[in-house]
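Read as chain and fold; for instance:
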Amino acid sequence: MLSVADIPMFGFHFRGVIGVVVLDGREYRLATYLGAKISEIGDGMVKVMQGRLELEPHPFVL
């Protein structure tokens, strides 16, 4: 599961992300508040990076 949204806060806004991936019984959380950054977005795709983790899910629906 991955969600990307425009977040309004105190008169400005930013693009936030929150998601979770379970792989081989291990849970990986990616979120703006944990330092995740959207490195690429557009044309139905998104790439999220957080530390050493990189997530590029397919397909992505805006």
Observations:
- The chain is about 0% helix and 65% strand.
- The chain has a mean pLDDT of 88.
